[in-house]
Structure formats: C-alpha cells, structure tokens
Amino acid sequence: MEKAIHSTGFYRAKSKHLQESAKILISEHGGKVPSDIESLTKLSGVGRKTANVVRGHIFKIPSIVVDTHVKRVSKRLGLTQYDEPVKIEFELMKVLPKKYWIRYNQQIISHGREVCKAQNPKCSDCRLKDDCIECVHTP
C-alpha cells in the first residue's frame, strides 16, 4: 500500500491508517463507509475535518469543513472569533444557513487559495473586501 500512495506524503502513516480503517469498516460496518460523524471519527486517522468532507461530498449531508482557508477567511469576515477548528465549525453552523454549508466550504477554500491568501492577500481582487476586517483597513 505504501508504494501505491507514496506520492501523497506521509505515506507510511497513511498506509497504516488505511489498513486499520479497512479492518474497522469490515468488522463494524459490514464493509460500508458510515455517514455519522461519530463512526467516521473512530476510523484510524480520521478527524472531524475528514469526516465532514466525507459526509458532505459522499453522502451530501450538510457539514462544515474547517481547514486553514476556512479558518482564515471566516475570521477575516468576522464570522468567528475562534482559532480552534471545532469551535469554528459550531460557530459557522449557527450563522450560516444549513443549505449553504457544503457550498460555503468549497467556495471559501477556493477563495482562500486564490485571493484571500495568508501572506499577501489580494484585497484589490476580493469580492468580499467590503465585509473583510483586514481589507477595509487596507488602502
């Protein structure tokens, strides 16, 4: 398995997690991937972020995925004051309509990668600059 996933980085740890998770999926879930957050996070190497990606993209269950981009952009937009991903997840769940959670993840991750970068954000190109705590202070 290590050879097959070598290009992904951290291939030794990922290989171990994949093998352990496969055993759990077979023994506890009949070989099927569960959709509930509790079962997903019991899989080896799976945290809330990965579990929410699976829930949103595979099962189409509205979920908030907090990665570095969602954290940064959400803070700059004043949607959260927290630094901890779980607290950010629950705060965003309160302020965003559930039907937009998956779309928010996709759009904000893309926006964070392309425009609202950690270093040298492109405020002049930002469609959200009027709502951004940092852009409104940029000349």
Beta-strand fraction estimate: under 5%
Name of the CATH first level of the largest domain: Mainly Alpha
Largest sheet: none
Estimated structural class: mainly alpha
| Second CATH tier, the architecture of the largest domain | Orthogonal Bundle
Helical coverage, percent range: 40-55%
* CATH homology superfamily name of the largest domain: Helix-hairpin-Helix base-excision DNA repair enzymes (C-terminal)
| C-alpha-based Rg, rounded | 18 Å
CATH fold annotation of the largest domain = Endonuclease Iii, domain 2
Q: How many helices in DSSP terms?
A: 7
Would you report the number of β strands? 0
Q: How does the overall form come out from the CA principal axes? A: globular
Number of domains: 2
How far apart are the termini?
52 Å
- The overall pLDDT average reads 94
SSE order, as H and E?
Answer: HHHHHHH
Question: Please, could you describe this protein's structure?
Answer:
By secondary structure, this protein is mostly helical. It folds into two domains: 2-57, Hypothetical protein, domain 2 (Endonuclease III, domain 1), CATH 1.10.340; 68-137, Endonuclease Iii, domain 2 (Orthogonal Bundle). Helices cover 52% and strands 0% of the residues. The chain is built from seven helices and no strands. The protein has helices at 2-5, 11-29, 37-41, 48-57, 68-76, 85-95, 101-114. The chain is globular. The model has no long low-confidence stretch (mean pLDDT 94).
Can I get a quick summary?
This protein has 139 residues and is mostly helical. It is 52% helix and 0% strand.
